[in-house]
Amino acid sequence: MATRQVLADLAEAAEAAGLPRLGIESVGGVDAARRVADGEAFDLVFLARGALEKLRAGAHVGAVTPLMRSQTAVAVPSRDDAPAVYEAGSVAFADAAALREALRGADRIGYSTGPSGVALVEMIERWGLAAELGERLVQARPGIPVARSLAEGEVDLGFQQLSELVGQPGVRILGVLPQDCAIDTVFSGAVAETAEDPEAAAEVLRFFASDRAAPLIAARSFGPAGS
Known about the structure:
It is a single chain. Strands 1, 2, 3, 4, 5, 6, 7 and 8 form an eight-stranded mixed sheet that branches. The chain has 227 residues and is an alpha+beta fold. The chain is 37% helix and 20% strand. The protein has two domains: 4-68 and 185-224, Periplasmic binding protein-like II (D-Maltodextrin-Binding Protein, domain 2, 3-Layer(aba) Sandwich), CATH 3.40.190; 70-181, Periplasmic binding protein-like II (D-Maltodextrin-Binding Protein, domain 2, 3-Layer(aba) Sandwich), CATH 3.40.190. This is Molybdenum ABC transporter substrate-binding protein. GO terms for molecular function: molybdate ion binding. One of its GO terms (biological process) is molybdate ion transport.
């Protein structure tokens, strides 16, 4: 779900460049991976790199192409319904110790079903805070952004991909996680083994990974995928 807007932008640009039109269905990552593994027919699959590598190991997709890096950000409810903005370089807390204190002080902590949520829970467990936070940890329903939980008052501290928070009403973005506890996700693409025209699908994927796509990726608050 975090990539739905940027993928739509990329698909439009690819079509304008003369490549095949791409119809995109955006669903939660868990559901997407399950449907691909169950053999449902797709031409391309876009997921977090780890999830795609698992599908590749199961021979459901071909080579995995990294496309963009997403940082996990922190937000709180806002009475202002204006679209949330992110000031480049803003960091939510000074360091991991400050984040731990914020978690201890929050009444309800929202996180997603996606890779950022999984990584957050694992980090909380490593810090030995799982039992202390207990039921204060609130996982959003699949396909439901944490921003909505914040705006509707269900949680008072929310963690999700930066791209999912930017532009959402009713939330204020504090910044991304500090470097010593950063949670970054590399979203990638792969040609599905069920692709009707694998070469055409691969051509679209190459466009998505090209320099021509970089400005569109940056405009949606994603960074370069890196190595």
